[in-house]
Amino acid sequence: MPAPALSRRALLLSGAAFSLGLPPAAHAQAPAKLRLRLLETTDLHVNVFPYDYYRDRTDDTVGLAKTATLIAAARAEVPNSLLFDNGDVIQGSPLGDYMAYSHGLKPGQVHPIIAAMNRLDYVCGTLGNHEFNYGLDYLGTALTGQNFPSVCANLLKADGTPLVPPTRLFEREMVDEGGRKHRLRIGVIGFVPPQIMQWDQANLAGKVTTLDIVEAARQHLPRLRAESDVVVALCHSGIAGGAPKPGAENAALYLAEVPGIDAIMTGHQHLVFPGKDFANIAGVDAQRGSLHGVPAVMAGFWGSHLGVIDLVLERRDGAWKVADFASEARPIYTRTPERRIEPTVAATEAVLAAARPEHEATLAYVRQPVGETQAAINSYWALVADDPSVQIVSNAQRWYVEGLARAAGLGELPLLSAAAPFKAGGRGGPDYYTDVKPGPLAIKDVADIYLYPNTLRVVKVTGAQLRGWLERSAGLFNRIDPASAEEQALINPRFPSYNFDVIDGVTYRIDVTQPSRFDADGKLAAPEARRIHDLAWQGKPVGDGQVFLVATNNYRAGGGGNFPGADGSTIVLEAPDLNRDVVVRYIVEQKRIDPEADGNWSLAPWPSTARVSFVTGPGAAAFRPAGLRAEPLGNTPDGFTKYRLSHAG
To answer: For the chain, how long is the longest CA-to-CA vector?
Structure first.
């Protein structure tokens, strides 16, 4: 029976990749070989504990305390390893907001995420774009608490000097395959997206400037390469294909073409590399994990993964050269076929202890009111009538984008906002609805309104694309046959509610007696079908050539759901903030909100003889929208309440 094949990583770790089949004389003449493991965390966003502060419950998909367990295991597997962080550390969760807005960070104090990282023996870090959200003074205080340095080569103070060193050189003792010790010189260079000057203009204008990532690399790499045995790039920037553009936000692929880099650690996009997210991009090996042949890794976000790059170094002609490599991102959890989360590791207690006081204080913080709502916010009827739970998201997105659009020279275009009801029953069950009572609003209540960690995007679309977007959204509804006397379910249960975009800022009606223009995959299925009627902006019909801005999220703007006008090519603004955080900021700013739906859309009437049914949660009875005729028909076996909708509109 043949022996099982060894994986590339097993070969690298065992040394077999360079020794199998060689005679003894060849071993004696072979160059020295040293195996070096590089470890990455990225986009931690103040997630130390495996906890979702928004939902106020344990979350096994996040937390540096769990990543720390993977770090310990990865170190135990090899004699030589180095740990790096790739930025976005001090902002991005309620723990970060609590520290910045409530607790404060005085000179000499150590930020809790930094305290946790200090337990893990990092070699070096770089700055992410979110490091600047609380201002340069706050960032400076946070950095002084690190027991490891940070580098950033494309960020300069107004006087032209670096804010932090562009590069650093470290010497570490390493052991080769023969047990011999070597002093290895590791050069590290870091980068941040130049877009911080747009995203954090209020904090940075007149204080710092940025350079193009590739330009900065070309300035600093020749010297660093000459001083180093191994060069590691900490690139808080993602991976994008196509021709290089000056000032690119996601420039890791272009960076890989600059000579002198042995390994690239990427981030910012909150994705995983190697992996399918980056398949079919020229220059990217999404399976092995390389960019133009340079080993690379991206370790997810919020501590979800540990990035691992294994380098095989050979000593030739007086220098160490990369002879082979393997790259992977190790997760802290997996999902079962039923979509249940299964943790793969436990949390490291020492890391939890480093941040526990601030964690406990944050729990109290998120449970405190940040504003007040004068009206109930629920989603029981969000699929059949304009709804306050969607309205508040639209209001917040438009409020946030108005200033960004003006700063980007887009302020003259009409601004619309797209939002969807995320909690609307379905597979989630009869209790899976937003249901916030009038009165104080806590930060955790916002998660009941906006579930997902999307980031805000703005797209520019034509009137024709806008109409197509709404037609695609209207695929939620089954076609109602006006001539049928049989009961007809209005909602297609296979259509996700998060794809039912309501676009605020225009008015329209949806005629469900027409077939859906698009099929389940978003492909044009009925070219003559038109469910969207009376589409108007400021009381006037929308023309096909009219141009609009639409505030939405990164999922939709990047092509999620296959919507016309939203395929990634129409994005004109990429905001650095989560949509959920935008809603929180809006509530804090307004102090008191009255999220009454403005009725900008409705279902067009159908014959009163049609028996159209709709199921929702039992709590819906107290919140029936005005103008919607709904007759209760009793409860379903699975706990929903069924209604007959009569002559809607």
So the answer is: 92
Percentage of residues of the chain with pLDDT beyond 90: 72
626 in any annotated domain = yes
**pLDDT (tens digit per residue) in 234-289:** 999 999 998 888 999 999 999 999 999 999 999 999 899 999 989 999 999 999 99
Nearest one of 69, 556, 615, 602 to 306, comparing CA atoms: 69
Query: Chain-wide mean pLDDT for the chain?
Result: 91
What are the distances in angstroms from CA 482 to CA 487, 606, 608, 648? 11, 7, 9, 13
- H-helix or E-strand containing 190? strand 181-191
Q: 396 and 320 share a domain?
A: no
Rounded to whole angstroms, what are the CA distances from 40 to 51, 87, 324? 21, 10, 19
Please give the single-letter amino acid code of residue 282: A
Query: How many domains is the chain partitioned into structurally?
Result: 2
Looking only at the bridges linking them, the beta strands covering 455-462 and 208-210 are unpaired
End-to-end CA distance of the chain: 72
Q: Are residues 123 and 231 in the same domain?
A: yes
Pairing of the two strands 377-378 and 435-436: antiparallel
Distance CA 446, CA 392 (A): 10
- Of 456, 372, 368, the closest CA to residue 53 belongs to 368
Contact between 314 and 17 under an 8 Å Cβ cutoff? The reply is: no
**Separation between Cα atoms, residue 112 and residue 90, nearest integer Å:** 9
289 and 380 together in one domain? no
3-state secondary structure of 392: helix
CA angle centred on 255, ends 253 and 256, rounded to 5°: 65
Joined together, the tokens standing for residue 391 give: 């309205």
State the pLDDT confidence band at 13, using cuts at 50, 70 and 90.
low
Contact (Cβ atoms closer than 8 angstroms) between residue 66 and residue 345: yes
Residue 95: phi, psi to the nearest 5? -60, -40
Tell me the CATH number at 343.
Answer: 3.60.21.10
The answer to whether residues 567 and 357 touch, using CB atoms and an 8 Å cutoff, is no
CA 267 – CA 415 distance, rounded (Å): 31
- φ, ψ (nearest 5 deg) of residue 270: 60, 40
Phi/psi at 627 (5° precision): 90, -10
